[in-house]
Specification:
The complex is a heterodimer of chains A (about 325) and B (about 650). With about 325 residues, chain A is α+β, with helices and mostly antiparallel strands. Chain A has helices at about 1-15, 35-55, 60-80, 230-235, 265-280, 300-310; strands at about 20-25, 30-35, 85-90, 95, 100-110, 115-120, 125-130, 135-145, 150-155, 155-160, 170-175, 180-185, 210-215, 240-245, 250-255, 285-290, 290-295. Chain A has two domains: about 10-185, no CATH class; about 210-315, no CATH class. The chains are: A alpha+beta (about 325), B alpha+beta (about 650).
């Protein structure tokens, strides 16, 4: 009975619901409670008041009241530090399982008031702290480890601040419908399957038998051996060597080609193949039970393949 | 969280600021150790070296606590407690590892501020407190504002403090005052300075070197003449050849005053002196606080005066005191220790034999002091065993206690009942405040002689030697080169005025801030129109008042959130465009600022530089990453100066 009431109260108070679009932090959404050091300071103030009374220290009264009032005013400051912020969830880049997913949020401060030390925290305790100058926007990234493939939701996030004195904890819950696509973790490198093209022209591709064609920017998941370390040393950034692929070769990355292994393992190996094939600029198709993606080339194709792998076997409820 | 170097400097500064006022009364070794520890911590912070190991800190801590135990013989009580607190706070600086340590230190330092009020609650102390608080708050805010620079942090701290002031005032006025103490206080809780219940040569001249205020007096009507202002304190009866004491208190009959005339009403604000005397003019008839009037007209409070105290009193300047004195009192007033001062006894005996009566002897004695080359000085020569003889016949240089003492001795030797009265004489008028300041340097001793049909008559032998002492004060009575406290010396009119201003202000401060106790609160609230004051009523008023204040402050604070600054940048740029449009160069709707600037510059080559400059400023403000006030100002100037 009591638990039910409590739940009802929480629902009424915190209004847990998933939101999309822009959220403005109004007073209805901001909660404030004293921190542990706030309570401790209250105790110190009480001691001081007792001392004032006992020793009849008029100036002591002044000091005690001044500190007490400043502490109380710091509550308003904490509230003001968060109030009227506009928050919108940004696009989240897909991540591979095992890597962190970087959730992006855009914070906008319309007011002339600079905001200090705002912290965004997820349920597991991952945090990011940022300042927000007056009339500024900022892009805040919160990294949440992606442990398994599929959709990763940011969950209910807490935005909090203990500005200015740390005596009060002001917080607000943010539950956006933002989610990150998590690809399966790429398996350890292993040779691509032989091309099974109709013309039978395909053959197992071994690295190094291609002509070097140039460099392109690194994309998450690129094979390590293909990273242009020399370019990195020249401070050109993280680049990947590209090799000209033999056109016309078609490569099927087929579920059924894989040896006996559990589903996840198979997906990981397929992910590796997709990445390698993409890096090798091969035309490749992906065949999964119930899905077939025709051979193609390019980033979009790669992403479609990875998405199918990520969401393979996951019900619509998850997508 | 790693504690940053500026934060640690802030903490060092906070501890330094709160401990510094204690330096004058802490044992020198504590001051030295704390100074060394602070310097050490500063050096470590500056050099980035590691903090000392725990065992070393523990050793220093134990040694420090041991030292305090040896110095004070206790760890409790005010002095020892303060020393311990400061030492531990300073040591904590060297053991600063987490944000929690820093918080503890901040809260501790704000607590240490209050210990300074045991010693001083003056206006400078209050100003110093505000400064210290500002530093503490700025350091505190440092922990929750990240890498914010010092100046905006100080602004945050100042804002917090300034916003706290209205509510603090309200709380100060309305918070129900409880008359302390709540528990037994250590004996050392109060300062003591002022008159003692005994007098020996040098005891009053020592006080004369002190500028400290003894009390302040506001007369309701006309103030009496200065030479009538004898503020009565301890009355001394017993003499042992060196020291006058009050003697054993004898249950005596009620004091008796007849033929009263010229009443004076006045209010005294007495500084705490840790004794029970309430100083009043000769002779008191009424006092507004519970007090006892003794048989020798001392007014004694029920308990030692440990806090500043105000009372109204009425005195009669003309009186006959105890015309019918009890015989044993008269006997007591003629007793002298045997074997002392034979020459003085002989002189008195000669007077007794050759003169017709008591009154004649009294006049002769005063004439003696007046004519025989006596000098009034703060630095009298040392006297031997026969102090009165030495003074009367050899040195003839003395302060009021010498005159009072030897005069009473002569009277007693001649068989006339006499006693020593001590207290204060005179006072300095503060025109601005309309009250008199009586300082410790006004301490005085005089004689009272009992004459038949006239009772106890005040006789001041000092006045016979140096009339200016009673008429104009100590400064006038002493030679110019005498060592006198700063305030007892009369200065230029300007300095005098400044001094009075300061004292008037100090007096208001004392009355309204320091002396704001249960009674004063009651009186003040009644004057404000509150009726039937009870603490419930005060609490309700307090709640309403703080509600209103907090509401107003919140409105002020939150308004900033909702008022968006008008886009001044855009407005300025449009003004610039209008100026160009008047010259025939209208900006097309599709034209971006840069394209427009290029076109305008081409058609107005003589203004090209200005056009490009304004456009660059506009773009920086509009799309730059760090728009600042300077850019806006520059844009405004450039647009204003732009003319075609």
């Amino acid at each position: 009975m009591f638990a039910a009431l409590q739940q009802k109260f929480r629902t009424w108070l915190f209004r847990p619901k998933i939101e999309s679009g822009t959220v403005t932090l109004n007073q209805r959404r901001i909660f404030i409670l004293p921190t542990r050091q706030g309570l401790g300071f209250g105790f110190v103030l009480l001691l001081m008041l007792l001392g004032d009374i006992n020793y009849n220290l008029s100036l002591g009264y002044v000091l005690t009241f001044l500190l007490a009032t400043a502490a109380a005013m710091s509550m308003l400051h904490a509230f003001r530090n968060m109030a009227q912020l506009e928050i919108r969830a940004g696009r989240v880049e897909p991540a591979f399982a095992g890597d962190p997913a970087w959730f992006v949020f855009h914070f906008h401060n319309h007011s002339e008031l600079p905001r200090h030390q705002l912290t965004l925290r997820d349920a597991a305790g991952h945090t990011t702290t940022f300042d927000l100058p007056a009339q500024h926007s900022t892009r805040v990234q919160l990294s949440i480890p992606a442990t398994q493939r599929g959709w990763l939701s940011s969950g209910r996030l807490t935005l909090y601040t203990e500005f200015p004195l740390g005596l009060f904890h002001a917080w607000s819950y943010l539950h956006f419908d933002t989610r990150a696509l998590v690809y399966p973790k790429p398996a350890a490198p292993h040779p691509l399957p032989a091309s099974t093209a109709q013309e039978g022209a395909g053959k197992l591709i071994s690295s190094g038998d291609e002509d070097f064609a140039g460099l392109r920017s690194y994309v998450a998941g690129d094979a390590l051996p293909r990273i242009a370390w020399k370019a990195l040393a020249r401070e050109q950034g993280l680049m990947v060597k590209q090799f000209s692929a033999t056109q016309g070769h078609e490569l099927w990355l087929d579920w059924s080609l894989l040896p006996h292994a559990d589903t996840e393992r198979k997906l990981e190996m397929l992910t590796r193949w997709v990445l390698d094939a993409d890096a090798a600029q091969l035309r490749y198709g992906l065949r999964l039970p119930g899905t077939e993606l025709a051979p193609d080339i390019g980033t979009t194709h790669r992403e479609t393949c990875l998405q199918s792998l990520a969401l393979f076997g996951l019900g619509a409820g998850q997508s | 969280m790693k504690l940053s170097a500026p934060l640690i400097y802030g903490l060092v500064a906070s501890i330094l600021l709160v401990s510094a006022p204690h330096a004058e009364h802490l044992p020198p070794w504590v001051v030295a150790v704390c100074a060394m520890l602070l310097a050490w911590r500063t050096y470590l912070n500056w050099s980035g070296n590691a903090l000392p190991p725990r065992w070393l800190l523990l050793t220093i801590t134990l040694a420090g606590v041991g030292g305090i135990l040896i110095s004070f013989h206790t760890l409790f009580g005010r002095e020892a407690g303060v020393a311990l607190l400061i030492l531990l706070a300073t040591l904590k600086l060297l053991e600063l590892r987490t944000a929690r340590d820093a918080t503890v230190l901040i809260q501790l330092s704000s607590f240490i501020i209050i210990t300074n009020f045991f010693y001083s609650q003056s206006i400078p102390t209050a100003l110093y407190m505000m400064f210290t608080l500002l530093v503490i708050m700025a350091t505190w805010a440092h922990m929750h504002t990240g890498t914010l620079a010092l100046r905006p942090r100080l602004r945050i701290a100042a804002t917090l403090l300034l916003q706290a002031i209205p509510l603090t005032l309200l709380l100060f006025v309305l918070f129900p005052r409880v008359q302390g103490p709540l528990w037994g206080m250590p004996q050392d809780a109060y300062a003591k300075s002022g008159l003692d219940d005994k007098m020996s040569p040098g005891s009053i001249s020592k006080l004369s070197l002190s500028d400290a205020v003894a009390f302040r007096v506001a007369f309701r009507n006309q103030a009496p003449l200065r030479e009538q202002m004898y503020w009565r304190g301890p009355v001394l009866w017993d003499y042992n050849g060196l020291t006058w004491t009050q003697g054993l208190e004898i249950r005596s009959k009620q004091p008796q005053l007849d033929n009263l005339a010229s009443p004076v009403d006045y209010t005294v604000t007495l500084e705490p002196h840790n004794k029970t005397w309430l100083f009043t003019l000769d002779m008191p008839t009424q006092v507004s606080v519970p007090a006892t009037l003794t048989y020798d007209f001392q007014v004694l409070a029920k308990a030692p005066v440990n806090a500043r105290m105000r009372y109204d009193a009425r005195s009669q300047l003309a009186y006959r005191a105890n015309v019918e004195e009890a015989p044993y009192q008269l006997k007591r007033a003629t007793a002298l220790p045997s074997g002392f001062n034979p020459r003085a006894r002989q002189l008195a005996a000669e007077w007794r034999n050759s003169l017709p009566g008591d009154e004649a002897i009294l006049q002769t004695a005063l004439r003696y002091f007046n004519r025989e080359g006596f000098v009034y000085t703060l630095e009298p020569p040392l006297l031997g065993n026969h102090a009165v003889d030495d003074f009367l016949f050899e040195t003839r240089k003395g302060f009021c206690e010498h005159y009072a003492s030897s005069f009473v001795f002569l009277m007693r030797a001649a068989g006339i009942p006499a006693r020593v009265a001590t207290g204060y004489q005179g006072g300095e008028y503060n025109e601005l405040g309309g009250y008199y300041i009586v300082r410790q340097s006004d301490a005085h001793a005089w004689a009272e002689v009992w004459l038949k049909d006239r009772g106890w008559v005040r006789t001041d032998p000092t006045a016979a030697v140096s009339p200016s002492r009673v008429q104009m004060g100590l400064n006038a009575a002493l030679p110019d080169n005498a060592v006198l406290p700063f305030f007892a010396r009369t200065q230029s009119p300007l300095l005098l005025k400044l001094r009075f201003n300061l004292d008037a202000f100090t007096n208001q401060w004392n009355q309204w801030v320091l002396g704001y106790n249960t009674e004063r609160q009651f009186a003040f609230l009644t004057r404000l129109g509150m009726e039937d004051i009870s603490w419930q009523k005060m609490a309700i008023n307090l709640l309403i008042g703080s509600g209103v204040l907090v509401g107003l402050l919140s409105l002020l604070m939150l308004r900033q959130l909702y008022t968006h600054r008008k886009d001044q940048v855009q407005a300025l740029y449009l003004k610039f465009c209008r100026k160009l449009a008047r010259a025939g160069l209208a900006r097309a709707a599709h034209e971006g600022p840069q394209d427009f600037a290029a076109r305008a510059a081409r058609s107005q080559p003589q203004h090209a530089a200005a056009i490009q400059n304004i456009t660059a400023h506009y773009l920086a403000l509009r799309y730059g990453s760090q728009p600042g006030k300077h850019g806006l100002l520059a844009l405004r100037r450039a647009v204003a100066a732009f003319k075609i």
